[in-house]
Amino acid sequence: xxxxxxxLFLIERKRLSQPLLYLSDYIERHRSDYYDLLQRVRxxxxxxxxxxxxxxxxxxxxxDAAGRAHLLxxxxxxxxxxxxxxxALVDQILTNPYISIAKASEVMKVSAPTATKTVKELEAKxxxxxxxxxxxxxxxxxxxxxxxxxxxxxx
Length: 155
Prior knowledge:
Blueprint: H1 2-12, H2 23-29, H3 31-44, H4 47-83, H5 87-95, E1 98-100, H6 101-108, H7 112-124, E2 129-130, E3 139-141, H8 143-150
Antiparallel strand pairs: 1-3, 2-3
Helix pairs in contact: 2-4, 3-4, 4-5, 4-8, 6-7
């Protein structure tokens, strides 16, 4: 609850435009420090070490988010070149790296055959990979985007 309140506080104070900081990963990786410092606040009123720990977490999380954003922007530029202007499709893939033909058609506001052609072009260029093995209802994944989203946060 406290982690959420801090994020909401930063949004309210206009320090964050959206809830982009995911502090839980940092706290999980530094769990013993987290509990030790919280206990010191409870038992001895030692706030400064706790605040330094928390601010270090905010800094590490912000740097990680900025690094991921930079990588995703690079992928977006490359995908845009390869997709020849299918901006809506590329942006959808960067939001959710899983895409079906039906979703591509909806996002691009084109017919299913046109969406199929664009998705197949991206697949041929290695940007998407079909994962279901089905002939109908195929799902394609942008594994490079997924890797950036799922990579372990850095120290």
